[in-house]
Amino acid sequence: MDNNDGNTASVKAKIMAHPHYHRLLAAYINCQKVGAPSEVVARLEEACASAAAMGPTGTSCIGEDPALDQFMEAYCEMLTKYEQELSKPLKEAMLFLQRVECQFKALTVSSPNSACGEANERNGSSEEEVDVNNNFIDPQAEDQELKGQLLRRYSGYLGSLKQEFMKKRKKGKLPKEARQQLLDWWSRHYKWPYPSESQKLALAESTGLDQKQINNWFINQRKRHWKPSEDMQFVVMDATHSHYYMDNVLDLCGHVFGNCLFSAESSSFVKGGAASLAYRRFSTSILTPGSSDGAFPSDLLSTKAVLTPERKIGLYQDLVIPVTNFHNEDKGLMVLAGDVFDVPIKKHIIHRVVRWQLAKRQQGTHSTKTISEVSGTGRKPYQQKGTGRARHGTLRGPQFRGGATMHGPKPRSHAIKCNKKVRRLGLKIALTARAAEGKLLVFEDLEVPTHKTKNIVNYVNQMENTKKLLLVDGGLINEKLKLATQNLHYVNVLPSIGLNVYSILLHDTLVMSRDAINRIVERMHTPINR
């Protein structure tokens, strides 16, 4: 660092000792004076005069250092040209103002003459003015001409100014990398996007933003893209109370014995970071359609449901149902998200989604030929008059056999608009309806030991009131299951990505694997791309 400072000081001393230094200083001050206020111009002139009065600061002469001589001459010429370029717009503006002033003076001088001759020029144009030489001037034409000249000459400069203004306007936008990090955090915590203070500090460190920017970004993001579930009732537990935590863990690991109540607490959204945990309570009270006092599907669950939530204030409540397989073996329990499997039933939403789905799947390849497309001659079949028959100019008309079709169908899309939110809500309602009817079964997996069709037939025959069965697996369909069901018209198999409202309504019973339910819930919780 000391060597660099010493080199810089020596170079400065050489420049100040050069004979062209005062010329260089004068050119630089002239550039600074362009467009500056009068007070600043006066100070600059005083500084230039004081520097000139000091005289040369060294004994250097031209020719000792040719490189420095060339640099000083080139720099002086560059500053002189730069000063000329800077002063050119000001000179043109002054010239324009002088022209305007001359026009105003001409108008004021010619106003008495025009007043005296008003009676003689009563039929003339009221927009025309008279100058000193008694020539008519159209001010609007003058303005248009001047505007065109200014635009032609300074269009590039105005464009660069506009770009600078747009850049300054965009300064309020967060950097792309920082915004991407915030969006990644949002996608991981979309269920409860309220970062704690420690998380905000970590985000501020990683993104380079201050905490105020982090807070404002999350506030705007929640307003635009997140709607909290109004049904969330949290039992917040402090992590410092270890005995309370262990009691809840033991409750979570309990078992069902006869008709005794089973208490389960499933971990849900965490509010306030790692210092607190949130739980929801469930009980094994079995509901019947007659005992329901609410308007939600989970209040109308059949006796096939093992666990139903204690509904108090909230809207959606998670459901807990048993897990089995094709051999009716007990594989435990599974919690179904209430905001997917326990939403209010709305028939008009189902109607809209089914109508959209059926219209969307139409190929729309129907086509008929118009009079210009149908095959046939363009010759007039017979003369216009004298035959006693109707007049015809072509045999390809719609009134002839093999002729054209008027206003017939053409290939087109039959799709109608249906918002993504409505489609997603329709799938939730269809799943809710099957769960409320007791027609939703959860299997550990859809693995079958053999590809024989009789195994699936025997299983369907054991089920009550089932005419059509839909099997939904998480990923790719098992080859054995595909072979076992392909000859059964009343059994269909779909992957979770292909699950739709129409297929659910078309089948009496819906059988889903654990993996399929997890994928469906994840799909329902993924933010919608706008």
How is this structure best described in words?
47% of the residues lie in helices and 9% in strands. The protein contains 16 helices and 13 strands. It has helices at residues 2-17, 21-33, 38-54, 66-116, 139-169, 176-188, 197-207, 211-225, 242-252, 338-341, 347-360, 420-436, 453-462, 479-485, 501-506, 514-525, and strands at 129-130, 136-137, 237-238, 264-267, 276-277, 279-283, 308-309, 319-324, 333-336, 440-443, 469-473, 491-495, 509-513. It has a six-stranded mixed beta sheet with strand order 9-8-10-13-11-12, with helices on both faces. The chain has a three-stranded antiparallel beta sheet with strand order 4-6-7. It starts with a helix and ends in a 5-residue tail after the last helix. Residues 365-375 have a biased composition (Polar residues). One of its GO terms (biological process) is translation. It holds the Pfam family KNOX1. It is found in: Nucleus.
